Amino acid sequence: MMLRKAAVRSLSTARNSLTVGLIPADGIGREVIPAARDAIVAVQQELPPLKFIDLLAGWDTFTRTGTALPSETVRALKDECDCALFGSVSSPSRKVAGYSSPIVALRKELDLYANIRPVRSVSADASTPPTTDLIVVRENTECLYVKDEKLVNTDNGKEARAIRLITERASTRIGKIAFELAKARPRKAGTGSNCCYFSDLLQLVTIIHKSNVLSVTDGLFRESVRAVPVAANGKFDDVTIEEQLVDSAVYRLFREPQIYDVMVAPNLYGDIISDAAAALVGSLGVIPSINAGDNFVMGEPVHGSAPDIAGKGIANPVASIRSAALMLRHLGYSSPADKIDKAVNDTLAPGKVLTADLGGSSSTSEVTKHIMGLIEAQYQ
Questions:
Q1: 283 occurs within a structural domain
Q2: Claim to verify: residue 120 and residue 102 sit in the same structural domain
Q3: Does any domain span residue 333?
Q4: Which of 80, 286, 293, 366 is buried most deeply by CB count within 10 Å?
């Protein structure tokens, strides 16, 4: 799945080697991260010498060791790795003393402030424009995910309170990512049912907020993102800004996905919108993402740990493989990323080798093997 041009804020540098941290974590993460590794190995002739480091994190790690994110994992990522792939985590829905989500902690530890989630449909006819082609750009470090919660007893019973943090700094830098992405991927207006609703807008950023209710927090997010092109001295003059309240944005996402290009949102809204958008393209099992900062990038499939199918060998590896491609592209390795994306699209379009979530009956290993074969064929 492409971002149309080289990914925003590429971390590309001349490297003598490429060290990738592998963090399968929980559930199906252990089944799909090996598939992502295989995809990177399949394009290794276009990469520096590869090294993979297996790292621990997750709920299972917590139950065994008392910590969900070992300090050794953080140290290895900071000191030894150029990038990483994270699988999925089985965070409990109840409060557990001493436990905190390792993926949320990693985003903060490594300052991976941008979660970039492309959602693009694949047509059986390559000449047919996709009905859905958008990117959700999710602020990754604050909002309610700062996890500042408390439970207090009152005369009327218990009260649960959470502090939501929105800062001008975080909102501005995620806004810059969104505008850079929109500028890098002009979208041509189509015709008929695939036509862009805003037919005269070839580069579009839609700010998602609820500032009609949350006028202070969402108001600051909205104003900070709107200020980005003003401060850019004309760099983004060709990018148009629209706004949508988050509830109406979800509604219109299902009704008119073609109106969106780049959607930028605070942490919680971005999480919800990108999961909802997955329904437009068949499954969470095909949606990739990268967690990106100025100095590090970590690929992560959008799906969860799926405990109901974990260990059955039927998990969809596509999101993980696509996340590996996104990660490589962000590092500046566009050609091998393109080969991975083509192999995935050539697998999905015919609809013959699919996992159960897409209506097929193929196993994780069968889909992975098929994609690897298509990658290898491009080098022959």
A1: no
A2: no
A3: yes
A4: 286
**280 lies in a domain?**
no
Looking at the domain assignment, is residue 347 inside a domain? yes
Closest CA relative to residue 364, chosen from 328, 310, 308: 310
Number of domains in the chain: 2
| Residue 14: per-residue pLDDT | 65
Q: Which position has the higher pLDDT, 5 or 269?
A: 269
pLDDT: which is higher, 199 or 236: 236
User: Do 246 and 134 sit in the same domain of this protein?
Assistant: yes
Contact assessment for residue 360 and residue 354, using Cβ atoms and an 8 Å cutoff? yes
Q: Classify residue 211 by its DSSP letter.
A: T
User: For 41, phi and psi rounded to 5 degrees?
Assistant: -60, -35
Residue 153 makes CB contacts below 8 A (sequence gap 6+) with: 159
Residue carrying the six token digits 């013959």:
352
3-state percent breakdown (helix, strand, coil) of the chain, nearest 5: 40, 20, 40
Half-sphere exposure of 282 (CA within 13 A, CB side): 21
Whether 159 and 243 have beta carbons less than 8 Å apart is answered as: no
Of 287, 284, 14, 27, which Cα lies nearest the Cα of 135?
Answer: 287
Residue that the structure tokens 């900070």 belong to: 224
pTM of the model: 0.90
Q: Which of 245, 275, 305 is the last residue of a domain?
A: 275
Query: Given this model, what pLDDT does residue 336 score?
Result: 97
**Residue in the structure block whose two tokens are 């790690």:** 61
Q: How far is CA 214 from the centre of its chain?
A: 26
Q: Are residues 39 and 104 in the same domain?
A: yes
- Note whether 271 and 123 are same-domain residues: yes
Give yes or no: residues 164 and 220 share one domain: yes
Contact 27, 304 (CB under 8 A): yes
User: In what side-by-side order are the strands of the sheet with 18-25?
Assistant: 50-54, 18-25, 83-88, 297-299, 290-292, 114-120, 133-139, 262-265, 204-209, 240-245
Tokens of 3: 């971002």
Look up the CATH number of the domain holding residue 182. Answer: 3.40.718.10
Domain that holds residue 102: 1-112+293-380
Give the integer Cα–Cα distance in Å for 316 and 303. Answer: 10
Q: What percent of the chain clears pLDDT 70, i.e. is strictly above it? A: 91
